[in-house]
Request: fold
Amino acid sequence: AIGDIEMAANKKRKKPHLLSHTRPKSATTKPSLSSQATRSLIRKHHVLQKGLRSALTNGDAAAEASLRAELAACGGLQKYQEASIQGQSAERGGDTSRVLMDWFKEAKTRNSSLRGGKLRMLEVGALSIDNACSRSGMFDMTRIDLHSQHPDIKTQDFMEMPLPPEDTLQTDGYDIVSLSLVVNYVGDAVGRGEMLKRVGQFLRVDRHSDEQDESSPSSVFPALFLVLPAPCVTNSRYLDEEKLEIMMSALGYVKAQRKLSKKLVYYLWRYVGVEAGPTGDVIFKKQETRSGAQRNNFTVVLQ
Reply:
């Protein structure tokens, strides 16, 4: 499973890891790999990265050197990112935002359903400016990635992105934030929790406060579009969908849509806000929810 290995928690850490420490650099892709070769390269990279993180955690210098050599022989992060972008390309059926747009079509959500023109979307980890959301004309897009290769995608770490000032949140904030295959790249459970907590601070709730009637096409906003590899919730030792929903509820979200495919799980979470801090007094620790030797270790910790 992608991003399923837990790194040792650093109790002295004052702030969460930056995404730049975990997510591979973007790269301009060339259509040189078949679908099978793409999948094989991605799987091998994940296995090697899993072993490398284990070696680093255990202080095994010999294993670390060996695994780094294997990663280099496979082409390193650049080759991996090329395969990842090819795997997510539209011609390979990998544009996750198509699911989001299908949901909006079902709900008959339109630009005119909200006052003030287009909806504002923040797309974190953007790889393309030509996905379904971008083509829809429904959104005023802000795209960010750690190592952008396109002038319309800003080079920005989400964990360092300035928060909209409270007095201008309704104009500078967003109606929806997209975290599609982003959270699973964060290398530790606490960092994933910090990312999810941060999203709500970018969403403008008051603008939609008079439109939360469930019959309204715009009742899903403000929202978070979250996409994870399916095994993160279907085969994790520490996280299942029930626990994720309870966790998201503590962060101020209500599940509006959900789709499970063979490889991915898609969610649309409507943000209703919280009164006393991101999680109040609720803490979600790393606790086993499923047993079994074949489980992965992916989880999210809120503290």
Summary: The chain has nine helices and seven strands. Residues 1-14, 24-30, 110-115, 276-280 have pLDDT under 50 and may be disordered. Residues 250 and 280 are 8 Å apart (CA to CA). The first strand starts at residue 119 and ends at 124.
